[in-house]
């Protein structure tokens, strides 16, 4: 503790901050990646006029509270006031649409990755580039705004993501890590920059709109892991730490998206490795040895923070519905005078799910709180079905919620594994759903028929991942590749828990998926009724 206190006092610790879908996390680490302190603050997106968004003021209010919580923990644990650190990193949800005029004014509310409102644009740009452009991508949102003839378009001076926006305000630098940038616009992995041919195609395509800008002029500059991305300004200090205790001049690493920091936090940036992040959304990131044979609407093509090619099987929905039901069970127990901690409730229910039937007793559920592109659903519609001949009990009910949480993502993974024959040596899972040991891990490993590993660091996810990227700026690691830095410095002694797939669960999950795919038409029909 004395050594850690001295390290913090000397300004040799590193801060990582991630703005996730439901929580903003902040961590403090030493130069070997050990977590010294954590902090955080909950927040939620809002559905306003059909758009999933976060208010601009709320971004800063919640970010300040998360940082203040970290600073409070440091003060209580080490009797030290945070004034100086070696580096800072900012990560956030990928994709979306944040646009500003030349004076830095936000032109429209933040349109997050969760919106499925750019289908026409997604299809047109995919055909134009001959490259998959999902609805979540920033360029799809921009092009859809053009198709909709929105009035703000000629005023655009800067288009970025949430991590890019926060970083810009803290440093004044309009830059973005290549992993996050790859979810804005296609990347040329040889040049480690936006694909120039596609930039030219887009400019030519939008000529009839007679705009004042070209696409490359309004996008952030692309940086790779290890490059300097500016320093914390006096203005940035007050945005992050209104007490003014933190000092200006601290270096920042390139801001990254949650997919990239998830890869870092699980040491999955080599070819044939992959990770699965499970939270509000679920996505699998598999680092490819070569390009896929063709494009698939179920798969994104993005990059690692070092610029290697990655296939991303993304689902907009994962744990939201599980959380809703667990909250309901907790409310019921509270009504009867039983005050059970939420973590204990999750653990008890998850473990009980393993006692259910392998195919969930013929029950069926969908946790679609927002639209889901993988199944052609533009709006959210959570649904639970139990046929007359179903085995409706608590174990099967919880089990079907766990099964369906990974259903939409599995559709993309099946393409990689069964059609593209992608060789995967290791997949690591991270996210709160894996906190109860050997439940979600066992189900997911069996669903994919691939061994699944978890680490005890995984619950800190992207905040730890971006802290590791910030730490990579350390001059001590100047001669390390990013892979070597992670292998030899960070993960050398971190234990890993590996779960093997079980054939019986795999067969039960396949029967569930047969019902899952057939039942999608039910969900689509209900959304048309406006219920």
From TrEMBL:
One family name in Pfam for this protein: FGGY_C
Residues of the Carbohydrate kinase FGGY N-terminal domain: 14-236
SUPFAM superfamilies, sorted: Actin-like ATPase domain
Domain spans labelled Carbohydrate kinase FGGY C-terminal: 275-472
GO function terms (MF aspect): kinase activity
GO terms, biological process: carbohydrate metabolic process
Keyword DNA repair: no
Superkingdom field: Bacteria
Listed InterPro entries: ATPase_NBD (IPR043129), FGGY_C (IPR018485), FGGY_Carb_Kinase (IPR050406), FGGY_N (IPR018484)
Keywords: Kinase, Transferase
Family label: Belongs to the FGGY kinase family.
Protein name: Sugar (Pentulose or hexulose) kinase
